[in-house]
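quick q for whoever's on today - can somebody do inverse folding on this one?? i tried earlier but teh output was garbage lol. tokens:
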């Protein structure tokens, strides 16, 4: 028997493939990873199989010879996902990445890599939490802003903003 939340989700989104939630923010360091952790931990009761991907990472570690975002490493350690860290973090933006892109020296088709990694993560999952990088403008120079990636993955977006009255509303309206 499917839960009430799963049935309601299907009515809203109308799809039977893995559901997608993209967590973005108006600024850096305002809680995307904390919200992602909370969503996954809370929704494990509803969705039996949950995946995580951070398509574009800025702060990375080298794991098994691959550059992977530190938030993906954290999620894997906490939730013990059974898919590769490479798929959880397909694009690591290292120092000089933008310059290489502008000089046409990036040979990787980043959109294809992100879609391929997402499909691997989503393959056996009911829900995938997708965590954006930095703020809304990060990645826009190489066409991988949070909005572009969320659109590419056909995902609904949760937009996080710092607290306050006027400022929070202004930031949400500027970034929607």
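ok took a stab at it. sequence:
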């Amino acid at each position: 028997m499917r839960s009430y939340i799963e049935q309601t989700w299907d009515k809203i989104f109308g799809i039977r493939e893995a559901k997608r939630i993209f967590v973005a923010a108006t600024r850096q360091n305002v809680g995307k990873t904390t919200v992602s952790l909370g969503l996954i931990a809370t929704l494990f009761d509803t969705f039996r199989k949950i995946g995580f991907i951070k398509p574009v990472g800025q702060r990375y570690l080298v794991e098994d010879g691959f550059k992977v975002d530190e938030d993906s490493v954290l999620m894997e350690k906490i939730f013990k996902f059974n898919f590769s860290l490479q798929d959880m973090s397909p694009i690591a933006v290292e120092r000089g990445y933008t310059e290489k892109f502008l000089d046409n020296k990036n040979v990787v088709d980043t959109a294809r890599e992100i879609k391929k990694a997402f499909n691997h993560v989503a393959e056996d999952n009911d829900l995938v939490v997708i965590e954006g990088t930095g703020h809304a403008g990060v990645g826009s120079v190489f066409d991988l802003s949070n909005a572009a990636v969320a659109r590419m993955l056909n995902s609904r977006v949760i937009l996080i903003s710092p607290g306050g009255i006027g400022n929070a509303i202004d930031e949400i309206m500027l970034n929607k």
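fwiw The longest strand covers residues 19-25. also Residues 21 and 156 are 5 Å apart (CA to CA). so keep that in mind when u check it
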